[in-house]
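Hey all, sorry for the wall of text incoming. These are the two entities for the joint prediction.
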Amino acid sequence: MTLQVLYFAWVRERIGLPRDQVETGAATVADLVEELRALAPRYDAAFADTSALRVALDQQLADFDAPLAGVREVAFFPPMTGG
Amino acid sequence: MAVRVQAKPFDTGAELAGFASGHKDVGAEVSFTGIVRDDTGGLRFMQIEHYPGMTEKAIAAIEAEAVTRWGLKDSLVIHRHGQLGPGEKIMMVATAAAHRAEAFAAAEFLMDYLKSRAPFWKKEVTADGEGWVAAKDEDEDALTRW
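and here's what came out:
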């Protein structure tokens, strides 16, 4: 499947890109994270501690063990600081 | 119910003047305005990033829950993004209900959820450099009271 993967705030800065288009067979978010970490050291650094990250699937907050079946857009970002 | 996510400034007075007009069953309106604060005297500006698309959906979902739980007659959320200097207004919420208890509670609920569940990220740019504002544990803890 083809996924649009988006990065925000320091995740975007650490990776150096706002988004990637990824061709993957990853079953879950955690599987996708492992694939991304293998791409380059900057991805490995950005995803070193997933407890410091949040993930949204098709613009809804989700968990790292959530399945990716049917998902088109995945976003990774730090805890939100609105208000 | 209205949600606006925008870069441009807003006029609190003008927003409130037209808010909930025409609702004869409204007995209380509460509003909150968030302002860029400079704690150290060194803040040049705040850079606010957001997730277009998800931001509007997340705020609309939070607002819909507030309307249902407190029977709001009207509500308004405005949140800015981009570069904002000290003293500039970042965001505002307004709630209209039959009675003040509902209007106050709904406004606090909206603020607590916007802090931790609306996809915004703040970066502080100072004379000494820049850094992302870390989420506070107490902001996450605040959600448990609802």
